[in-house]
Amino acid sequence: MLIIQEGAQEAQEILEETISEERTLSIYQLIMDGGLGGQIIIALLFVLLIVALYIYFERYFAIKAASKVDKNFMNQIKDNIMNGNIDAAKVLCASNPKPAARLIEKGISRIGKPLEDINTAIENAGKLEIYKLERNVPVLATIAGAAPMIGFLGTVIGMIIAIHEIANSGGQIDIKMLSDGLYTAMTTTVAGLIVGIIAYVAYNHLVVRTNKIVYEMEAKSVEFLDLLNEPV
């Protein structure tokens, strides 16, 4: 009985050690156990994540700065134009480095020409401002679509490794032998989805913020053209 109790106690200790080891398994260990192929894909996904975060924060602060427009700006422009102070209106636009102000400045520089020409000039300037606001934003959309596919590529590589190990095992399947392939398959898939989700959310948030500024630019342009149409 003593021998059986000692054996049971030893088995319990081994089981507790095994459970403890499983609980302390870290992300770093998962990546390192995934083999060279998995490590390369994880590294690539990490680079894409850094690029996505950099683009998001750089564009976020740029768009945030561009969205801050003085509420009295159009009233001051209207007063200057109605009083014939065209130069003062241009100076006011130049001192306000915002997309809407640059559109109005372009329109002011065309005062005296047909209204259609002024409208065309403002539209062309607006396209340029939108291009500036959306700079590098399409890269986020590319990362959002490419990251999960890269993760799935790691899944395929991991399954190929696992199948190769099974084929070379001679019928003796050992789960430990398959761990490298399974780790590669699972970790790369999770990493790809995480990067893709972050990039997708960041892209849509920037699109919403950009569209808001575009609507404000259109509103200011229409207000300026209505000002030119007012009877003197």
Structure, described:
- With 232 residues, the protein is mostly helical.
- It has 2 domains: 29-66 and 138-229; 73-133, no CATH class.
- 82% of the residues lie in helices and 0% in strands.
- Helix 3 packs antiparallel against helix 8 and helix 6 (99-109) packs antiparallel against helix 7.
- The longest helix has 51 residues, at 179-229.
- The protein is rod-shaped.
- The model is unreliable at 18-24 (pLDDT under 50).
- It is found in: Cell membrane; Membrane.
- The chain crosses the membrane at residues 36-57, 137-163, 183-203.
- This is MotA/TolQ/ExbB proton channel family protein.
- Keywords: Cell membrane, Membrane, Protein transport, Transmembrane, Transmembrane helix, Transport.
- Residues 98-218 form the MotA/TolQ/ExbB proton channel domain.
Task: Give a nutshell description of this structure.
The chain crosses the membrane at residues 36-57, 137-163, 183-203. The chain is an all-alpha fold and 232 residues long.
